[in-house]
Amino acid sequence: MDVTFPFGLPWPTATYLSLYVATLTLHMLLMHYVLAGAAWLTGSSLVNLRRSKPAQQTTIAKALQDWLPFALGGAITAGVAPLLFVQILYQREFYTANLLLSHRWMSILPILILAFYLLYLQKSTWLNHRAAVLKPWVWLLITSCFLFVGYSWTENHLLSLQKQDSWTTFFAERRYFFARWEIPLRLAIWLASAFTTLAAVLAWQLCNVPTPEVAPISKSSDQRDFTSEWRGLRTASFLAIGLSMGLSLGYFFTMTLETRTIVAGPLAWPYILLTVAAWGTQIWIWWRMTAPKHGTSRMLLALSAAVVVTTLGMNVIREAIRLAEVDLATLFPRHADAANVGGAGVFLFFLILNAGVMVWVVRQVVLHLNANGDH
Amino acid sequence: MKGLIIGGLGIFHVFLAQFAIGGGMLMCYFQWLGQSGRDRLGIMRKFIDDYFKYLVLICFVTGALTGVGMWFTSIQISPRTIGLMVTEFHWLWATEWTFFCLEVVAGYAFFRHGKTLPDSIRLQLLLTYTIAAWFSLFWINGILSWQLTPGTWTQSRNVWDGFFNPSFWPSLLFRTIVCMVIAALSACVVINTLPLPRETRSRLIFHSSHFLLPMIVMPALGLWFVAVLPVDSRQWVMGGSVAITLFMNIAVGASVLIAGYAIVGLYWQRLTINGATATLLLLLAFGATAGGEFVREGVRKPYTVRQTLYSNSMTPNQITEFRQVGSVTNDPYPLLNEERYPSEQIRLGAKVYRLQCSVCHTQHGVNGLTHLTATWTESQRRMNIAKLQHTKNFMPPFAGPPEEVEALVQWLAWVNAHEPSEWPISNDPDVLEQIAKWLHEASDY
Ligand code: HEM
């Protein structure tokens, strides 16, 4: 652990760790949109409840409501790859935590199915016409579902980091929950950073996503209102970055000295630096972009890159904490065994091919929509 | 019991996934009909959009999540099995994942914007979606069929020997046709929910029925599949196991009914079909899927991966080892409510039950050991457990020394006697010697 991640490890371990972190980052980015998006809608719809006159649905709210089901599908699909690699990397640990939590753990699946159909219920004309007063409470329910799922992943993760003794005790006492103060803290960090990602994606959506409901800036009749939404995003992003930083720092100081030494040591300090720099970049860009304008694409690209780097950096730091706690060397032979089986070339080939086809699909649609001017 | 859960979830998942694939194929066909001038009534575009909505609503998230659910349940039931599968095939699984991503992106692009796109782009999107969906079947089919017929992989340990195993092609082709059947029948259900004029409706139904025609080759594929099964698995299907034969007959019977109705009624006589009948046929297809999945799970017994891993997560090598050192000697997890048991021996028996038998048996419920052994004498129990793999060929060999057999026998007797608070210790050397002989007679372990 005296070389920066993922170097200094045997190549099979380094390869699987890199693939794990990369695919987990994709999962996290989509999950951020889902989690923070639902929380945003809950907050804004509950605030609206207190107004005497029902407020017009904002552009952001429309975009969110429109895209959440897809983002959820994406988050789930993207989660499959890290789920695969975590089973290669930490098989025994991951399975033990799964088995110990048992039904409690499995309950995340029906809960996600419920949340998905509730998302469609929110879009349905039935709910909008008949029982609009219920909507904020349905959003609250949906957000709770997502928070529960996030909570469960954190719980499972932390349980998987325990040693045999505490697994045995957990089993013998027939416990259902692995209650730890780290869980709410970690969850709060994820939630806060979710809002920075959300703000960046919504910035794109406000500027030019061609959804039928969201008018592009140029066509917007109510420029002023739009600017106020933009300000909301900026504020949210500043707050979220501040919170992420503060909470992460707090979390760092609650770790044992050993863990802290490893995480802040050569293994991960470049990533800590990278993450802080990326947060700084986000703040700087939001500071500069006071209103949505045309020609901001380059800024938005830079903002998105900063968000991706932040998430990647946080994921490496997250992994460094795990590496500090597990006895990694005992896992090397397993990884080497796994690396002996064939098929890596096929994976690489189809990864590149299918990524290309995905880009092509999106291009086909976007080109056509732009050509026809129908957003 | 857990087996039933994975079975139920598995059937549901397989059905949804096959609907997603077949649905894509059907829409490609309809889109092609529409844009090549064969759609005189001009109804295809609208129908495709309606049908796709169902597909997205039902399959996208529920299909994906039941898939993840299968994974989680497999971990609960047999972490060793899924662990072995992941270790051997993770690159192919990762490859499958790239197809999932493509499927979601292409499918959603069509779902959101299909209505406004010109025909050529619509067909491109539908084809991309369908190819991606079908390839996810291609990859997973190799892994699942490997469990049943690993073929030359058991010697070579080469991933492609395992993947293109003897039952790969028959089951891939068979499942592809099942996809088409489910798509056609669900289309008939959807058609009946739409407010369409009579002529339009019968036209759509006639076109859908084309997707039922490949059922003609199903019997041949079924025979091919049975032919490549190992002899012992084949005998389960051919009457060796009442339950498996029964499910097999259900699957075959339901398929014959669907095929008969489809070919004679829909295609030949060009009848239409009302919503109720279509739903009934779809339910029959669900029944056939259920039967088929049950058979697939069933004929693998006593293995989860043939000749490599037994259903209770033991490898053949481990059985040899456990015969020497005991199967639960190093089990770190205590029994729940340990103080309930009257002696160490009964505790040992309970642990052996938990490790070696509880995947397939309960104590009193489904396949309950107390019922199964109620009429046996003590020495019958000893012999039948020592020779477990001969008592019923669905079971793996017993994996432990004679002391563990005796502990299990005593635990069974204690449970049958309603768990009294005292129970004598049984450690007669002659008895243990006899058990050792039986263990030895039953196998080479
Ligand atoms: C909207 C639903 C979901 C939310 C809110 C969510 C949230 C999270 C969170 C917060 C973590 C980090 C846990 C931590 O480090 O403390 C995580 C990790 C992870 N998630 Fe998700 N998740 C969701 C759905 C899924 C699904 C459906 C899958 C699987 C297909 C998945 C796969 C993973 C994996 C593999 C990890 C890493 C676990 C580990 O390394 O221990 N997630 N998720």
Could you describe the 3D structure shown?
The complex is a heterodimer of chains A (375) and B (445). Chain A is 79% helix and 0% strand. Chain A has 375 residues and is mostly helical. Chain A has one domain (11-371). The longest helix of chain A is centred in the first third of the chain and has 39 residues, at 11-49. Chain A is globular and about 60 Å long. The model of chain A is unreliable at 209-224 (pLDDT under 50). With 445 residues, chain B is an all-alpha fold. Chain B has 2 domains: 2-310; 316-441, no CATH class. Helix content of chain B is 73%, strand content 1%. Chain B has 19 helices and 2 strands. A two-stranded antiparallel ribbon of chain B has the order 1-2. The longest helix of chain B has 35 residues, at 79-113. Chains A and B meet through helix 2, helix 3, helix 4, helix 7 and helix 13 of A and helix 2, helix 3 and helix 4 of B. The structure holds protoporphyrin IX containing FE (HEM). Protoporphyrin IX containing FE (HEM) binds at residues 24, 27, 31, 34-35, 72, 75-76, 79-80, 82-83, 86, 112, 146, 149-150, 153-154, 157, 160, 186, 190, 318 of chain A.
Number of strands of chain B: 2
Structural class of chain B: mainly alpha
Number of strands of chain A: 0
What is the string of helix and strand elements of chain B?
A: HHHHHHHHHHHHEEHHHHHHH
> What is the molecular shape of chain B?
elongated
Instruction: Please tell me the total number of domains of chain B.
Output: 2
**How many domains make up the coordinates of chain A?**
1
Features:
heterodimer; A: mainly alpha; 79% helix; B: 445 residues; mainly alpha; two-stranded antiparallel ribbon; 19 helices; binds protoporphyrin IX containing FE
Write the layout of secondary structure elements.
The complex is a heterodimer of chains A (375) and B (445).
Chain A: H1 11-49, H2 59-89, H3 91-106, H4 108-123, H5 125-130, H6 135-160, H7 164-172, H8 182-208, H9 223-254, H10 257-263, H11 269-288, H12 297-325, H13 332-339, H14 344-372
Helix pairs in contact in A: 1-2, 1-6, 1-8, 1-12, 1-13, 2-3, 2-4, 3-6, 4-6, 6-8, 8-9, 8-12, 9-11, 10-12, 11-12
Chain B: H1 2-35, H2 44-77, H3 79-113, H4 119-148, H5 153-156, H6 159-163, H7 168-193, H8 198-209, H9 218-228, H10 231-240, H11 242-268, H12 275-298, E1 303-305, E2 309-310, H13 316-325, H14 344-357, H15 369-373, H16 378-386, H17 388-391, H18 402-416, H19 429-442
Antiparallel strand pairs in B: 1-2
The structure holds protoporphyrin IX containing FE.
